Amino acid sequence: MERPNAWKAYDENSLNELEAVSCRYRAFLDNGKTERECVKQAVEMAKAHGYTDLADAVKAGRRLNPGDKLYSVCMDKSIMLFHLGQAPLEDGINVVGAHIDSPRIDVKQNPFYEDTNLAYADTHYYGGIKKYQWVARPLALHGVVAKKDGSLINVVIGEDENDPVLAISDLLIHLAQEQMGKKASEVISGEGLDILMGGRPLEGEEKEPVKALMLKILKERYDIDEEDMLSAEIECVPAGRARDLGLDRSMILGYGHDDRVCAYAELEAMWLLPEIPASTCCCLLADKEEIGSVGATGMRAHYFENAMAELVNLTCDSYSELVLRRALKNSRMLSCDVSAGYDPLYASVFEKKNAAILGNGVAFNKFTGSRGKSGSNDANAEFLGRLRRIMDDNKIAWQTAELGKVDVGGGGTIAYICALYGMEVIDSGVPVLSMHAPEEIINKADLYEAVKAYAAFMKEA
Q1: What is the pLDDT of residues 248-294, one digit of tens each?
Q2: How many CA atoms lie within 13 A of 92 on its CB side?
Q3: Which residue from 49, 38, 102 is spatially nearest to 74, judged by alpha carbons?
């Protein structure tokens, strides 16, 4: 049973819309290489579409009504957008949720050192990466430094065309006989991912003069001292902009498609909702999915539940914990995380008829997990049946998929965490090639169909 290619159904108007969405998405990727940068953009877009801060409504004790649009930020790393609907919250809400963290290399808290006329920054990689992919390529630094006085310094080095880039060196092929004999997981070690920061000594400095010049530049440009790195969050990411891929410009090559492509599709979908939707709709963008959804900004934390409690309090005559529990239980959710796109060059790890095909639209994963569905959310057939109707009624290109062959591997999303509330949840995302590589690949048609799918779900689920 083959699903049709989405491109075949497009007219000129659809193609123009697709290109416009793709252009806006590339800009979102370029300006959102960290979770903080994604949240900042989401807030700016939300405000432009009439959303106000939930915290202000809470502080004022303002009564909320159908049609109100609000956002709530958690520690500048996660964000929720709510568009209040006609139905009471107790009947449940329609949620589209994604994550905005991506695999990367983090700079350690005590990072800087000098060795043989070269200055380095020590690192600790974040999420699942093939470490050998991160060497010998241009890298940029993005993040924040928190000063002792409470001020926050934003850092971006390596993106402007006049900026220097950074890099992690690799061993020359002429001396790499031993390295080439190692397993891919051992070719580059975690401790070998140190970033090359400089190679020129500071005149008149005798002790670690190259490191001294590097620190002097950081002080002059950013007012950052070495001790300030103790309270910094600096992420090392691929330098450069997302680009159209293919002679037909049908795809996009860029850093962070997992999972910012689904996050962006959710945001676009929110702007397509009617003035007063039938049910309250929520766009949930979470942090820390790549390391298990842990911490105060990961999906395991309670900020979504807390925001729902505030909504209950501001929409009901009196707060009720039972109403909150019913609202969570009766909700419907698409856990919008990317799917492994079928790659003909690596066909042996896929079961083709149950794989996500690039260009065939948004992919629904009834279950994730690994091998015997370990760690999976396994959606109800009844929920998937309703989704089939919504997608087909709205002429949306969609497909079903699994991550790969049963015994090959696996992975998880935030779906099983939200399912703990008792709500209906299924994974739904854009197929990706080269997932978790520094540069990933998506098809523009799948992004376009995801926007339409998420909007239709929120309107009709």
Answers
A1: 999 999 999 999 999 999 999 999 999 999 999 999 999 999 999 99
A2: 16
A3: 38
**CATH classification code of 104-238:** 2.30.250.10
SS3 assignment for the chain:
CCCCCHHHHCCHHHHHHHHHHHHHHHHHHHCCCCHHHHHHHHHHHHHHCCCEEHHHHHHHCCCCCCCCEEEEEECCCEEEEEECCCCCHHHCCEEEEEECCCCEEEEEEEEEEEECCEEEEEEEEECCCCHHHHCCCCEEEEEEEECCCCCEEEEEECCCCCCCCEECCCCCHHHCHHHHCCCHHHHCCHHHCCEEEECCCCCCCCCCHHHHHHHHHHHHHHCCCHHHHHHEEEEEEECCCCEEECCCCCEEEECCHHHHHHHHHHHHHHCCCCCCCCCCEEEEEEECHHHCCCCCCECCCCHHHHHHHHHHHHHCCCCCHHHHHHHHHCCEEEECCCEEECCHHHHHHCCHHHCECCCCCEEEECCCEECCCECCCCCCHHHHHHHHHHHHHCCCCEEECCCCCCCCCEECCCHHHHHHHCCEEEEEECEEECCCCCCEEEEHHHHHHHHHHHHHHHHHC
Residue tagged 């900020």 (tokens): 303
Domain ranges of the chain: 6-102+255-460, 104-238
Distance CA 255, CA 257 (A): 6
CATH numeric code, 6-102+255-460: 3.40.630.10
Q: 402 to each of 152, 346, 355, 410, how far by Cα in Å? A: 43, 15, 6, 9
Nearest alpha carbon to residue 369 among 418, 420, 400, 404 = 404
Partnered with residue 78 across adjacent β-strands are: 74
Does the pLDDT at position 448 exceed 90? Answer: yes
Q: Which residues of 390-424 are buried (b: 16+ CB within 10 A; e: fewer)?
A: bbeeeebbbbbbbbbeeeeebbbbbbbbbbebebb
> pTM for the whole thing?
0.96
Torsion, Cα of 265, 399, 401, 17 (10° steps): -20
Please report how many Cα atoms fall inside a 13 Å half-sphere around the Cα of residue 44, on the Cβ side. 9
CB burial string 301-319: b at 16+ within 10 A, e below: bebbeebbbbbbbbbbeee
Q: How far is C-alpha 454 from the chain's CA centre?
A: 16
- Residue 407: pLDDT band with limits 50, 70, 90: confident
CB 6 within 8 A of CB 395: no
